[in-house]
Amino acid sequence: MPSPALPTTQQVDRWQAMRQKAFKSVPESGRTITYLGKKFHVYPNTFWPFLDSQPLVRNFRIKPGDSVLDVGTGSGVIAIFACYQRASRVLALDVNPAAIRSARRNAEAHGFGDVMEVRRSDLFEKVGDERFDVITANLPFRDKPAPDVVARSQWDTDFQTNTHFFEQAARYLKPGGRIYFAHSNFGAVEEVRRLAKQNGFSIRMMARSAAERDQERQFFAFLIKPAGKHGRAA
């Protein structure tokens, strides 16, 4: 079966701009979103739980006792599903203060306030010297100027967030650690592959999905490991 046609740049621009407007229009008290059968609360300016992270959440594997670092946590969905897989510690990061507020509320609501810490951080800025068994990331997919913190959840000016992620990630992984990374067919897929390999990682797609009514937009999950003997041990 042939692959579905890619959505045009104009189509994706309109769709993402509409989503950003919706994120900003949430009431001050917040809004509850159902995602994979669970409830998540989002405050204004927070990226909602959506199809983009589902291939990752449905297919990543956290061993009981693993430590997990979730970069770009948004409302905290990936971090919380890591908690459900019995991670011993989850540190969730986001640069957006609204996302921090939403993720903290959701961690408590799901009963993981003692396992999951939420910290405002631009990528790894506030991690310190800690290393993790697993890093998860749902970063903006597209190389496009982002005028504000809400747009930064979807657009990455000069692809700097993604570039810095791959330049820095290895120092926060334990030996044998692994990265689960979300992306899409309308994003800079080849650039992600290049950045991963350029910074000493192997990368393979482990899952993909598409909305039933919109087969053009597809979402991916990549498994990324440090190349060499430590990567093979994961």
Automatic annotation (TrEMBL):
<dbReference type="GO" id="GO:0008757">
    <property type="term" value="F:S-adenosylmethionine-dependent methyltransferase activity"/>
</dbReference>
<dbReference type="InterPro" id="IPR046977">
    <property type="entry name" value="RsmC/RlmG"/>
</dbReference>
<feature type="domain" description="Methyltransferase small">
    <location>
        <begin position="53"/>
        <end position="187"/>
    </location>
</feature>
<keyword id="KW-0489">Methyltransferase</keyword>
<keyword id="KW-0808">Transferase</keyword>
<dbReference type="InterPro" id="IPR029063">
    <property type="entry name" value="SAM-dependent_MTases_sf"/>
</dbReference>
<dbReference type="InterPro" id="IPR007848">
    <property type="entry name" value="Small_mtfrase_dom"/>
</dbReference>
<protein>
    <submittedName>
        <fullName>Methyltransferase</fullName>
    </submittedName>
</protein>
<keyword id="KW-0949">S-adenosyl-L-methionine</keyword>
<dbReference type="GO" id="GO:0032259">
    <property type="term" value="P:methylation"/>
</dbReference>
<dbReference type="Pfam" id="PF05175">
    <property type="entry name" value="MTS"/>
</dbReference>
